[in-house]
Design goal:
Distance between the termini: 37 Å
Largest sheet: none
C-alpha cells in the first residue's frame, strides 16, 4: 500500500482486530465465570472505574501526541508534567471512586480489595500506559501504540482462563487481583518499548496555568467520549433487574467492540489532522468528508450484519443469557450513530477543538441519563437499548452541525 494512511489503517485494524478477538474471549469467559446475576454489577463497577480513569491523565497524553506529531523535539517539555499530573489526578480520582462504588453496586457485595484492585488498575496504572502509547502514535507507529494498549487485555484473557481452570474459591476477587497484575505487567513492558520512557524524578513538575488550560479540554472530552459507552452500563444495574442488566451490558459490549475498524481509521488519520488543523482548503474538506462517509457506511453495514447474526450471540453466551438476540437487535439502531460519533469526536479533537467535541458529547450524556431514567424502568431491556440509540444519534447529528460550522467559520482553539 503506497498510501501511508491506508497502510496504517490496515495494520492498526489487524492489531485492533486481534484485540477484538481477545475482548470477545474475555467477555464470553467472564460472563460464564460470573453468571447473569453477578456480571451486571461487576460490569457496572468496572465501567465506573474506566469512565473516571479517562480523566486521570487530565488530557496530557493527548497534548503529548499532538506535540510529537508537530515537533518531536518538544517531547521533553511535555513528559515531565504529564507523569506528575497523571499520578496526582489519578490518586484523587481513586478516592472519588472508592466513595461512589458502593452506590453503583447497591446491594451487591464485592470485596473491598477487589474494588480497590480494579480502581488502581484503571485510575493509575493504565492511564500511565497511555503516555508511551501516545508517544508511539505521535511518531506514526500506530500499530505498536495500539498493541501496547491491547496488551493488558491479552494478559487479562490469560488470567480469566486461569481462574476458570483452577476453580478459584472466590472467582470475582481472584480475577480482580489478576486485573491489577496484568496492568502492572503491561506498563512494565511499555516502559521498555522506548528509550528513556520516563523523565528522571528530579525533572517532574506540575503544569503551568496555560498548560493546564490547554490539556483540560482534552481531559473533559476523554470522559465525555467514554461516557456514552460506559455510563449506560453503570446505570443498568440501578435501573434494571440483575439478569436484564447483565444481558444488556454484555450485548452493548459486543456492539461497541465491533466499531474497531472506525477506531483504527481515526487513529491512523489523527497525526495528519493535527498537522492540517489550521488548513481549510478543498483537499482537507474532501478528506474529512471521505472519513465521515466511511464511518457512517461502516456503521450501517454493522447494524445490518448484527441484525442478521443476532441469534448467534444467544448460542455463544449460553442459555443463561437468553435475551442476547433481542438485545443485540435493539442495539442495531445505535450502531451507525456510534460509528459516526466516534469519527466526529476524533476529528474535532484533532482539529484543535476539544471543547466543541466535549459540548456535543456532554449533550449526549444528558440525553443518555434522562432517557435511561424514563425508558429503562418502564420498558426494560428495549428501553435501555433505545436510550443508547437516542444518545448516539443525538451526538452524531449535533456533532455534524458543529463540525460543519467550524469548517465554514474557523473558531480559535481554546
Amino acid at each position: 500500500m503506497k498510501n501511508p494512511i491506508a497502510r496504517n489503517t490496515f495494520h492498526t485494524s489487524v492489531v485492533l482486530g486481534l484485540r477484538l478477538l481477545v475482548q470477545a474471549g474475555i467477555l464470553l469467559l467472564v460472563t460464564r465465570l460470573l453468571g447473569p446475576n453477578d456480571y451486571g454489577p461487576f460490569a457496572g463497577i468496572t465501567a465506573l472505574a474506566v469512565m473516571l480513569g479517562t480523566l486521570s491523565t487530565l488530557g496530557t497524553h493527548i497534548v503529548l501526541l499532538a506535540t510529537i506529531s508537530q515537533n518531536p523535539a518538544k517531547r521533553s517539555d511535555i513528559l515531565p508534567f504529564a507523569v506528575t499530573t497523571t499520578l496526582l489526578c489519578g490518586s484523587i480520582l481513586f478516592a472519588v471512586y472508592t466513595l461512589i462504588s458502593p452506590i453503583v453496586l447497591g446491594r451487591y457485595n464485592l470485596d473491598i480489595g477487589a474494588r480497590c484492585a480494579i480502581g488502581i488498575a484503571e485510575l493509575l496504572i493504565l492511564p500511565l500506559l497511555t503516555i508511551p502509547s501516545a508517544e508511539h502514535q505521535g511518531h506514526g507507529r500506530i500499530p505498536l501504540s495500539q498493541a501496547l494498549l491491547s496488551l493488558p487485555l491479552v494478559l487479562r484473557l490469560a488470567v480469566v482462563l486461569g481462574v476458570l481452570l483452577l476453580h478459584a474459591h472466590s472467582p470475582v476477587t481472584t480475577y480482580a487481583y489478576g486485573y491489577l497484575a496484568t496492568a502492572i505487567l503491561a506498563l512494565t513492558i511499555a516502559t521498555f518499548s522506548l528509550h528513556d520512557a520516563w523523565p528522571p524524578i528530579s525533572r517532574w513538575r506540575m503544569p503551568t496555568t496555560s498548560e493546564l488550560k490547554h490539556s483540560a479540554g482534552y481531559a473533559v472530552l476523554n470522559i465525555t467520549a467514554a461516557g456514552p459507552t460506559e455510563l449506560d452500563k453503570t446505570l443498568a444495574p440501578r435501573l434494571l433487574l440483575p439478569v436484564t442488566a447483565s444481558v444488556y451490558s454484555a450485548a452493548a459490549r459486543v456492539v461497541g467492540s465491533l466499531t474497531v475498524p472506525v477506531i483504527a481509521m481515526m487513529l491512523s488519520v489523527m497525526p495528519r489532522l493535527f498537522r492540517d488543523s489550521q488548513v481549510s482548503g478543498r483537499q482537507t474538506q474532501r478528506f474529512l468528508l471521505q472519513v465521515l462517509a466511511a464511518a457512517l457506511g461502516y456503521g450501517l453495514l454493522l447494524g445490518a450484519a448484527l441484525w442478521l447474526t443476532a441469534p448467534v450471540f444467544t448460542w455463544l453466551f449460553g442459555s443463561n443469557f437468553a435475551g442476547m438476540q433481542r438485545a443485540v437487535r435493539w442495539l442495531c439502531v445505535a450502531a451507525p450513530g456510534m460509528s459516526l460519533r466516534i469519527a466526529l469526536g476524533t476529528t474535532l479533537m484533532s482539529l484543535q477543538h476539544p471543547w466543541l467535541r466535549a459540548t456535543f458529547e456532554l449533550a449526549g450524556l444528558a440525553i443518555l441519563f434522562i432517557a435511561a431514567t424514563m425508558l429503562a424502568p418502564r420498558y426494560g431491556l428495549a428501553g435501555m437499548a433505545l436510550t443508547l440509540a437516542c444518545s448516539e444519534w443525538g451526538m452524531a447529528i449535533f456533532g455534524s452541525i458543529i463540525l460543519a460550522k467550524v469548517r465554514q467559520h474557523p473558531i480559535a482553539s481554546p
